[in-house]
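Quality-control log, excerpt.
Job 1 of 2 completed; input and output follow.
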Amino acid sequence: MKPGPLVAAVLLAAFLVLRRRKLEPTLLIGGVIVVVGLLVYGSGVVQLPDFKKIVEDAGNTLGNWTYLVVGVMAFFETGAFVGLIAPGETFLIFGGVVAGQGTISLVALIAIVWTCAVLGDLASFYAGRRLGRNFLIKHGPKVQITEERIKTVEAFFDRHGGKAIFLGRFVGLVRAVNPFLAGSSGMPLKRFLPYDVVGAGAWATMLLVLGYVFWQSFDRVLHYAEQGTLALGIVIVVVAGAIWLYRHFREEEHRAEAMAWVDTQLDRPALRPLARVLRPVARWARGPLLFFWNRITPGQLGLELTTQLAVAAVGSFAFAADAVTLRDHDLVAGDGMAFRWADDVRSGTLDDVAKALTHLGSLPVVALATALAIVLLLTRRRIIESVTLAGGLALTWVAVHIAKAAIDRARPGNPLVDTAGQSYPSAHAAYAFAYVAIAVVLTRTLPGLARTTVVVVAAVVLAILIGLTRISLRAHYLSDVVGGAGLGATIFALAGMAGLVVAFVRHNGHRA
């Protein structure tokens, strides 16, 4: 007799009974199966097979095919509504477990799953835009998408607005049809994509790392699982309490009641000295803080912040992934192939063009372009934007040199231009992202300048070309360029987020 599994079965059964009307049928059935399994195992009637050996054998059998299997399932999770039948969390955790065995790379798996999840969402988004909601109502029941489920997801959209794209990634029912309904509702792609990139990245990383850590500590996890019934109960209570508090204080009336209660308590004689400190904090919580929070999620400023966050998330992953890989390997996948491709198309004319173009990524040239943009902005009293550009370039310079010293990677052999210092990350690729930042700032702040994506796209193309010249001239490996671009994108995005917040507080805080 094992009391731990029996208590866990009772707790899970109680949860299923209480939430039976709100749980998806697949989750409800799965929960019942788990309860029965816990009861049988806890009673001692049967002994569980060696789960660790089963998973280990499965991982060894799949090997590198795990990348394909998990990536495809991440795509079909929303791209073909498979998530309604087989939740993608299962496959992601399994992929993390295989990575934990050392069979495949966790970093590469995160990149593949993140990319596939976004591509699946985009496929579903464009299908929704083309086919519309009526198509889902007509054919949805064939894949368990009933009209009631559609209304549930639409209600989720109504409550959370644009950020439902991010939050929906973590809710099984919503995740499967979220992109389709976003497309059919006419949501612009530029609003959908940033939230989706951030949500897909957080979802993929969390589950894959969970599986990875689980396998690394498998024996310890099993021990804690046998002894941790009390902890499980505490977690359930805490989570349920947090959800109740969130739902309760989401209502303005309840927040006002709480503030009134706080004021009453602070009027007590014993608390009057403390009230001098707490009252300003309470006024701030009641006024500008709430106003600021309501505006950034998911208003226009929230979209800009989320876009910057998406850029920072992808950029930081690109930088960190190669940095982690270089701790154990001299080359990253693609480094040798990039040099071979460059040699295949090499010619004297292209080398001359590359040597001229690569100078646009040098610090003096980028600094001059940034200074000219700042002067133009200052003539129009755009101080925050000017500080953002200057700070972004300065922080990029510092970060590049810190990273070079930390990684200490040697340069490629036989360069076609003079090189000095360490190779990773490419400073030219990092500095070149300043052109993108300049384009974004100018197109959103200066009247009369065409507010189209053309200027920004041109800046992105220029930054890419500068990075390619570093590979063509054998000044850097491909991974150096990717890491440098990721580092530059991350720092300028974070600087832009800080600038948006400062501008928001400065211009709108007094309206609270």
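Job 2 of 2 completed; input and output follow.
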Amino acid sequence: MNIKRPTLIVAAVVLLVVVAAGFFMMRKKADQPAAPGTASSASTKHGAPPARPTLTVTVAKPESAELTDTLAANGNVMPWQEASVGSESNALRLAEVRVNVGDTVKRGQVLATFEPETINADVAQAKASLAEARATAADAAGTADRARTLEKTGALSQQQINQYTTAAQTAKARVEAAEAVLAAQQVRGRNTQVLAPDDGVISSRTATVGSVVAAGTELFKLIRQGRLEWRAEVTSAELGRVPVGTPASVTSASGAQVQGKVRAVSPMVDPQTRAAIVYVDMPNLQQNSAIKAGMFARGDFQLGRSNALTVPQASIVPRDGFNFLLLLQPDNRVSQLKIDTGRRVGERVEITTKLPADAQVVVQGAGFLNDGDLVRVVDAGGAK
């Protein structure tokens, strides 16, 4: 096909115009400024785009407070002293038991009695033997006196006189022996009554009416004076902080609380546990019905008072087995600080780690933040 030369020239010119127009449009679009409010505009005018706060939080300054210094311990509640009350008579039948477990008794009070018939018969026999011995002794003494009056007359030999004197002395010794037997039988008669050796509370009873018991058999156990004590286990490292007289607050498993005072500190430390027993006197048993001997109890020794730096409990964030505070920085970002805690009073916790002098800790929202997060701070009543 033949194409005329003028036509080719026209087509070439048109192509050049189209190419030039396209190049011009692309150059104009590249050089055109971005629209206001777009990311490119913000980037051109201010650099990086402004960051948005991660969370709205409240902050507080650490406060100094005077706290009670305590030492926690565990131990058992036990009787101060326990008396064993037993039978002093042998092979007698128990006739009456007058007390039971939990009864409060006074010193010398009759707790139980044995049948007295056998003892009464033995006492009567001892009295008769004593009367006979006294009569024999009186006759022997009279004979000896008469023999001594005839000594100068020679009517009796010296040997006979000595025999009468010896017989009188022997009869006198038999009287003393009979008196001792009677006294022993009278003691047995008194032992037919089992008496309380001290004021206190009956903690155990094995006495049974009608039983025949041997001498020395335990019939009752008595908590002397109704006194209990808390035997707290304190480590050897802390033992020096608990002198005699230190007040203590004891809490039973039921939640009942009583106040006591350190009576004594054991002179020995257990070589296995490296702990010593601290004996804490507790009030009268009858005044503490919720505290019983044999209970396990925890308690705190009141060692005094000291100043401490405290923060709200809500500001402490536990993570990975440690405690942290989130401190507010001047640029409204937070920095995470690992801390050690101490005593707790109400909603405040002692911080033993040193904090900056102007520290502000995040309270509300602390658990949702990470190190370096940007926050917006408001007060407790609303936005600032």
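Post-run check on job 2. The CA atoms of residues 62 and 97 lie 67 Å apart.
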